[in-house]
Design goal:
Elements: H1 3-22, H2 28-34, H3 39-67, H4 69-88, H5 93-121, H6 124-138, H7 140-156, H8 159-179, H9 194-205, H10 208-238, H11 243-267
Length: about 270
């Protein structure tokens, strides 16, 4: 696997998360009306995804240490595809929320596996540069995703967004089967022992350096999530922005993220 192929695969893996959250944002108000639910029920499809994504990291990392990066990535892709299809066919809001939870578990597994592949192949500074380059490619997804999602909602309805996610998951699964190689050549037989996991998490919780990195990222994402969860209702229902134009409003905000990744690449040198 060449560095170029690795970069494209990592960018594809990373793109699952914004694809899962941003593509259907313009459909959230329509979801609430379709199922006869209130706004909070529609927003729960986002909340459950974020919670599931966060908690899945506690298991996805140890699983990749025990069984390898490739099996976790492929299993995550397969779960993501099945969950996306479940969302597309959901008969009720409860099924949709459950499907979103499964989506989060699969998506997180894929991203954790991609990050550990980078760690296996590169030293920390070089790995950070790879992630920064992948993030620049990744920025195009939240940039164009809501735009595509808005027009998809107008032309085909909310289920089409999850059909697109299913197809993207299938494409990534095929690419991973073809090009992703195992980089963890010495699996840890004891990686899943509960006592060892708890001891590791406790050690991490006591590490000041960990919180110095984790807290800014967590708080930044929390503030972004407020905007992500509420923006479609504010623009479409309060400000009367047409659904197909909502994506452009969202993309304007994403330009700040894109600019930040470009600056980050320069600073990392």
């Amino acid at each position: 696997m060449t560095d170029r192929v690795l970069l494209l695969l990592v960018a594809g893996c990373f793109s699952l998360q914004p694809l899962s959250t941003d593509l259907y944002l313009g459909s959230l108000p329509h979801l609430a009306r379709y199922f006869g639910a209130d706004a909070s029920a529609a927003q729960a499809t986002l909340t459950v995804f974020v919670i599931g994504f966060g908690l899945a990291q506690l298991a996805a990392g140890p699983l990749s240490d025990r069984y390898g990066r490739r099996p976790v990535a492929l299993g995550g892709c397969a779960l993501y595809v099945c969950a996306s299809l479940l969302c597309a066919l959901a008969p009720g809001i409860g099924t949709l929320v459950f499907g979103r939870l499964l989506q989060a578990l699969g998506c997180c597994s894929v991203i954790v596996a991609a990050r550990t592949v980078i760690r296996d192949r590169h030293e920390p500074a070089a790995g950070a540069a790879v992630i920064a380059r992948a993030s620049t490619l990744l920025a195009t997804v939240p940039l164009i995703g809501p735009v595509i999602g808005g027009y998809t909602q107008v032309w085909f309805g909310w289920r089409a967004a999850f059909v697109i996610q299913t197809l993207c998951g299938l494409a990534l699964l095929g690419a991973s089967l073809r090009w992703l190689v195992e980089t963890h050549l010495a699996p840890d037989r004891y990686a899943l022992r509960v006592r060892r996991l708890l001891a590791g998490y406790l050690e991490l919780a006591r590490d000041r350096a960990f919180w110095e990195y984790a807290l800014p990222g967590a708080l930044t994402y929390a503030s972004i999530f407020v905007f992500i969860a509420d923006s479609s209702f504010a623009f479409i229902e309060v400000l009367n922005v047409p659904t197909e134009r909502y994506g452009f409003c969202f993309a304007f905000a994403v330009c700040g993220y894109l600019l930040g990744t470009l600056i980050c690449r320069r600073l990392l040198r």
